[in-house]
Amino acid sequence: MFLSVRFIPGDAIDAMLGKTELMAAEVDRAALEHMLGLDVPVHVQYARWIGGILLHGSLGDSLIGSRVAVEARIIDRLPVTVELGVLAILIGLALALPVGIYSAMRQDTAADYAGRSVAILGLATPNFWLATMVVLYPSLWWAWAPPMQWVPLSEDPLGNLGVLIIPSLILGTALAAATMRMTRTMMLEVLRQDYVRTAWAKGLRERVVVIRHAVKNALIPVVSLIGLQLPILVGGSVIMENIFSLPGLGRLMLTALEDRDYPVVSGVNLFFGTAVVLFNLLIDLLYTWLDPRVRYE
Fold it and tell me: Which letter does DSSP use for residue 69 in this model?
């Protein structure tokens, strides 16, 4: 990412000149490049960036505006992205787990076919297209549009939920489709195991067999899938924040790309990558709770 973003035509100085409507002839470009650290080869810039992270814990300063520290900009935008991601995951799990479990318990019934059809539709529908339709057509047909003025959670929780609920539903539905199919598949496999048949033979109620004996063992691959979907969630948050004007990390990265603000682009991507790694580590540790046979030495 550090290298590829520099292949985009133009640089941060061109972006600044365009925004301030200054003429290039009136600016000492060489002095400006030296001040921003862009007058050295790319490998030297990379060494300086990595050195700042390893030695000082700093992701550098933004090239645009008042040159705020990148980590400060990330911390400022992080709550919005976290709220969107948590809501999307909760909505996705709330849709996927009950439907997947019920679909497996009622295999090849009308409810099962309906659940599987909805899951395939969810997988086949791009969330950026769906979000665009949600914004566009209600405004054309009913003169209504989703709220796009950001409301902080600390000021108005209900207003905050009103802004986030639609993008979270769209993002959560996309996550729910794959999770529901995996939940159904694993439930069907677990329900055919000998210990489950023994539980049925003992006369236990369906709810006890499903919740106590089947669900917990079926959730291990489902939890793995949730971890693998986190990069999709990150990419989806970039799209949702841009369409619904949410001031999160995804929108910050797109703005930084437009401005050729290289430290911000690299810093946000490094943060996203670290978050994915740590989240998958948490998923691995969760296995020990789901399956006592799993132990980490």
Answer: B
